[in-house]
Amino acid sequence: MPTLRKFYYFLPPAWRFLARRLYYLPVDLYEGLSGRRGPMAPPRGLIYTGSGDFRAQGEKMRQYLIELAGLQPHHRVLDVGCGIGRIAVPLTAYLDERGSYEGFDVVEAGVRWCEKSVSSRYPNFRFRYVGLDNDLYRSGGGNAAEFRFPYPDGDFDLVVLTSVFTHMLPAEVANYLREIARVLRPGGRCFATFFLWNEESARLSRNNPHFSFPYDHGHYRLMDEQVKAANVAFEETHLLREMIGPAGLKAVQVHYGYWAGRNKEVCKDFQDILVLEAR
After folding, report:
1. Cα–Cα distance measured from residue 27 to residue 46, given in angstroms and rounded to the nearest whole number
2. Residue 128 phi, psi dihedral angles, 5° rounding
3. Which residues, 6 or more positions from 202, have their beta carbon under 8 angstroms from its beta carbon?
4. pLDDT value of position 53
5. How far apart are CA 139 and CA 247, in angstroms?
6. Using CA atoms, how far apart are residues 62 and 50, in angstroms rounded to an integer?
7. Can you give the residue ranges of every domain in the chain?
8. For residue 159, what pLDDT is reported?
9. Which of 27, 28, 78, 183 makes the best surface tag, with the fewest CB within 10 Å?
């Protein structure tokens, strides 16, 4: 594992956010004072998930939701682990007055920014802070393995999780899958990203020391034993048969990412994409 990433994981969660804010402070000040940052673009120091251009990445994901998951303008969308609005911001230009968006996240600063910058302009976009424990993003709080989504049964057409299951352990993932099945309408879809461990990814990752999962826990693997939620890879067959199926979902699409060393030109994204459907 690269030294910089190892050092970052060594820091307590609150210090990781502070380190990012300080690192990007000069460019955030410049963009804020010069007006180069739009009203619905967060300061770089506040972006704690994902990489690359905030707007471009969000627009790419919006297109995938339309093309792969069947998103339509009138749909009701749930964004689990909504972060700081990477998915929400581009959806404001797609969902119509019949559509709506709900998002929740374990990082309060991201939720508050979204409320101020997005909900104030689009009242059909709502955000919620949930105080769950995650050793990558926050210390203390509730148990994600027992968390019940604060929405009624059959409430959504689409549930989205980008870079969420990649930071959760098996019991937490199993619970979220059951909750996703519960809140989806019959035939509704879930667009989720994973690190899927299979023969090909195992073979390719041997030549990719910059992004590997050396700690084997049977049906899942960890990148770091100290910060278990740093990055988690799930054995693909076990995930599909023992977790997704029993939750009441079925996988209808699999798109492998280039994280393990696949050809970037033929992959849709860095992480693997699963499109699930409520049965």
Report:
1. 12
2. -140, 135
3. none
4. 82
5. 28
6. 15
7. 49-278
8. 98
9. 27
